[in-house]
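Need STAS/SEC14 domain-containing protein's 3D structure for a figure. Predict it.
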Amino acid sequence: MQPLPGIVCHPNGQAYCTTEYVSAEHWLRTTWQGFVSPADAEQGALAALGVLQEGLAPCLLNDNSQIKGPWFDSVAWLQQVWAPQAARLGLRHVAHVAQPHTEADLGAVLARDPFGNYFEVQVFTTPEDAATWLRECQQQDTQGAGR
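Structure prediction for STAS/SEC14 domain-containing protein:
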């Protein structure tokens, strides 16, 4: 992985959100760790936009599997603020790895398809399953472009 300017830290210097370009896969990967407050989530998501601005890939693997603490609902902010900007920067597919034991909550929220106007989102329980889906999206995008 090639590091880009997408590392966000708590005041104590501990990173809680890292966004990097995975050159072997041609996608971005955002990894969240530890306790992440709603304000932290917004800061991390905004940092990811900075990496998206590099124009490297239309796919994002968003990994929340290492988050500790309560699940928070930032979908409204993501839908109103983040998603329009991410879509303008070329984001087309988001594979979201849910925080353990929150899959049902997140699935219920995403069943309303809040990002359908911007990009496709699928929820997974493992990074491996998320990666498999992103590879399938890339293959479909490639086949569609070749027509």
